Amino acid sequence: VRAGAERLDNTAENAQYIRVAEAIAHPRYSFRTVYNDIAILKLANSFKWTTTVKPICLMSKPVNEIQMSENISLIVTGWGATDVGGESSNTLLRTPSL
């Protein structure tokens, strides 16, 4: 796993690399449609927290039990395609705050 860099094709950035000890794919992942394209990666070591490598918070409750307020914003990021059969990007993509 590479963390701390926005461009996949730039090896000069201050990225950190950690080996994956185990990968657990979503049980309903479909290679054909790319639906449920998410996995949990267990890392062999921990990352060093820096200005570009920080932890994220994961929800511990089902989404229908979360009380959202107007003051909460969400940001979606990724390198993947935004549609089945769509092109992917070497640059980290971000959507506006949701």
From TrEMBL:
InterPro entries per the UniProt record, alphabetical: Peptidase_S1_PA, Peptidase_S1_PA_chymotrypsin, Trypsin_dom
Domain Peptidase S1 residues, every copy: 1-92
Disulfide bond found in the keyword field: yes
Superkingdom of the source species: Eukaryota
One Gene Ontology term from the biological process aspect of the record: proteolysis
One MF annotation (Gene Ontology) recorded for this entry: serine-type endopeptidase activity
Record flagged with keyword Disulfide bond: yes
Keywords: Disulfide bond
Protein name: Peptidase S1 domain-containing protein
Annotated organism of origin: Bracon brevicornis
